[in-house]
């Protein structure tokens, strides 16, 4: 036993620590991916650019073609710097209220995501509390909730949008409903697992103290479920974002990242399409990072090991 | 006279069958000045400091001591699962690494470590697959060694269908299946209750008597050490070292009853004194 | 009085009230003597049930719920009632609801000893629950006369489903078999291989794992229009989306799984002088199987979602996502629901097949021992 504990604590030199940490490898992989992207961009845009130069009947070298592949207007695969430039331009170069600004579109999608996320979380946690306390619900409803995760729920998105649109509800609410619907399932399932996670020994102890169900919930089940809560919230917010984006597709909405993706794909503006996609990715990472930050705060207050 | 000769010849035969390739009385393990020091955030820790030990073939050696005295470390060094920072170690005349690659020993851990996706039989065959024996040979050996540990009839069962004691017996059969001359056991019965432990102690002793293996056995239990061994090595921590080596000259075929004899108690007393001298009972 | 007794009392009162309240404008219960008899029998069952316990009580309640449900469905066949159901009708529905709820609660309370019986009850409860929900849907839509354009009744959806089997078949077979399955196989196998390769190079592994986790959180469905642009409108673009969606969960899970083998087991392999390949094949891969199958199950759902959403972006001539967008635009919601039912069936079946394979391959895992 001592051997294992000691072995884990051998000191390492600085170089060892860089090589054995995670920052180095991640940076290396990202660098490698970026390099591969540039090569792919050159390869995929090559014939298109070369044909264009042929048509223009200007003399060209291979270098010209390569330069062309990395700065084409409608490339098959935009180069990373093109995407970053377009992204920066759409985020900072345009006024936020312009309907070409990704801040505007991002905000539209973000609001639907957050509203849906809050709705879904409240519903999901509430339902989990009910399921854990009412035996009948656990046996009748929970199996459906678990098996519904195998169903491609996104298929319902168009119906929700259209039906609600028919009775006059448009805009934020239908998208939020889709988002809420998508994040409600992982939260319910995760929280049920979390509420049931305490050891039977712990639950017996509560019974020896004649704790009421509410006390037992507040003092044992709820704190014990925190890890599960944050895992589910991270899954839920990512699902919520996907729901909001997909919710913008069926009726050809005008605003939002999904709408932007769709519009760019219709008009063949590939760089804008990739920029919108990157914006969505940034949004997703920011949201997940927010929840991770919240998790760290809560865990530290609860005395978990750092 | 003839009868005695017969007995001697028979024992030599048995030793040949057991795969021992040198004359009795030669060294199975020799450690000289063996040390293992760790660098930790709190400074250097000497898990093992200047250990000298000579183990002859056919002996049953127990390593006993409190936590941190280095007994498991010593065992792992012999098994080449750790490397020493100083000193020399030879196993059957080879370095520890050569011994490991040559599969000269079988290791039994504290937990049975049986693979849950293999039947008991296939678990025993695992080292044989790695060594490269034919399917028929593997089958035959698995049967033989499971019979040796009294698990006939359980070949097709899965580990979770067996009790803790039976799982540990299966892991002993696995350790023996490729006929190593040396058996290294790290508190193999520590997780079992006393009644099962006694039973397994008896079975292990019978096994040792029949197969003439050299056994190095790590334990916490004075009673177990005195009952099983030909020699007891008492160790103490900080730094890990040998305090005392106690000879145990009970006959090879012993029963649990000897635990109440005065000779047994005398040896146990000496072991306990050694542990006290090594501060095992201090706060 | 317990909740159960209150409920039963309300149910019986409802049934009595039904005799007085109108079923609809021109309809009365006395026009349907058989149904009237059924209602009386149900009321009797509910009243008697309180004196019994255990299985008999549950059976009585199920009889009551079943017969009342049948009565209401039969009543809906009459044109006077459909669309303008009155208070009397809803009283019967309420009584049916209460008896069904009590029956299900009763089933949830019993704990049979025999394992087969336990499994059966465990299956029966959600099935009955779901069946009753469908019944309520049907009765609400048809009783209130909800326009089919807004929300079709389950029976209408079922009829449309059966009638459109050829279309549904085409929507399913081609895109599923070609797009989803091929994408799933390619994505899962490349993810797996990448993990095994990364395992050899710890440096790579430490870089890939966090990245894989990161990418899994991104809205990958967003690459659908890009894939359509690269691979065209037909199934290859769907397969491409599925490949990207399934690659990362498989990678992350396999990497985690490969480090799942315990230290003791790995020391054991070292003590046998086993080389890296033997350790990988005999220990680490089998130990990683539970994680691999976890990813395979997750991916089965992701694959289907990816293919359907990809179709929202592109416009092929066949496929579930495509059909849904078209029929939604045409407001023929019964077809949309039929497609959704098809997607649900496909999703559960796919998942079920993977789960069965998981059971066969990882039967030894502690999670299967109850």
Sum up the structure in keywords:
heterotrimer; A: 306 residues; mainly alpha; MetI-like fold; 2 domains; elongated; disordered N terminus; B: 283 residues; alpha/beta; Rossmann fold; six-stranded mixed β-sheet; three-stranded antiparallel β-sheet; globular
Biggest interface and residues each: A-C, 63 and 64 residues
Helix and strand element order of chain B? HEEEHEHEHHHEHEHEEH
What is the domain tally of chain A?
A: 2
Described by strand count, sense and barrel closure, the largest sheet of chain A is: none
CATH third-tier fold name of the largest domain in chain A: MetI-like fold
Give a count of the beta strands of chain B, DSSP E runs of length 2 or more.
Answer: 9
What value does the average pLDDT of chain B take? 86
Proportion in β-strands of chain A: under 5%
Distance between the termini of chain B: 59 Å
- Major sheet strand order of chain B: 5-6-7-3-8-9
Report the oligomer: heterotrimer
Largest sheet of chain B: 6 strands, mixed
* CATH class label of the largest domain in chain A: Mainly Alpha
Cα Rg of chain B: 19 Å
**Can you tell me the overall shape of chain B?**
globular
Rg for CA atoms of chain A: 25 Å
Question: Spans of chain B of 5+ residues with little confidence (pLDDT < 50)?
Answer: 1-11, 14-24
- Beta strands of chain A, count: 0
Count of helical segments of chain B?
Answer: 9
